[in-house]
Design a protein that fits this description.
By secondary structure, the chain is an all-alpha fold. 69% of the residues lie in helices and 0% in strands.
Length: 133
């Protein structure tokens, strides 16, 4: 009986250690990220101009950091979709349209439709000219 009691206590202690968080979250719950605001607005269908207009009272440096992060996110997502390989392997107009449509969708979801720097980065890093977008 004594052995079962020890095992029960050990099990309870292990469960409590695993189930309870060891520390508080790093950011306070009321802190809101400008990046997450931008992404939420873009997913709701707001254009880049509308988002920038809504964020006009924010620090310009912060907004530029968000844009840089969004550019990086778009490039990384396009790499995961193997856009370079799909573009190079495109054999007809339909294949090319699919590649351009994937790029356009990714840019639109990020709310960066008019960002010329992003389009330049896509051309330089992925080898896809976006003259048609």
């Amino acid at each position: 009986m004594n052995r079962w009691l020890r095992w029960g206590l050990l099990f309870t202690l292990a469960t409590l250690l695993v189930a309870s968080p060891t520390s508080q979250a790093q950011t306070p719950p009321n802190a809101v990220s400008v990046y997450s605001i931008w992404v939420r607005l873009s997913l709701r269908g707001y254009s880049q101009e509308e988002i920038e207009s809504l964020l006009r009272n924010m620090d310009a440096k912060t907004v530029e950091e968000v844009k840089t992060r969004l550019r990086t996110t778009v490039i990384n997502n396009l790499r995961l979709k193997r856009i370079r390989e799909r573009f190079q392997a495109s054999r007809d107009k339909g294949d090319l349209q699919d590649v351009l449509s994937s790029i356009e969708t990714e840019i639109r979801f990020a709310g960066m439709e008019n960002d010329e720097e992003l389009k330049l980065e896509i051309r330089e890093r992925l080898g896809v000219p976006l003259d048609r977008l």
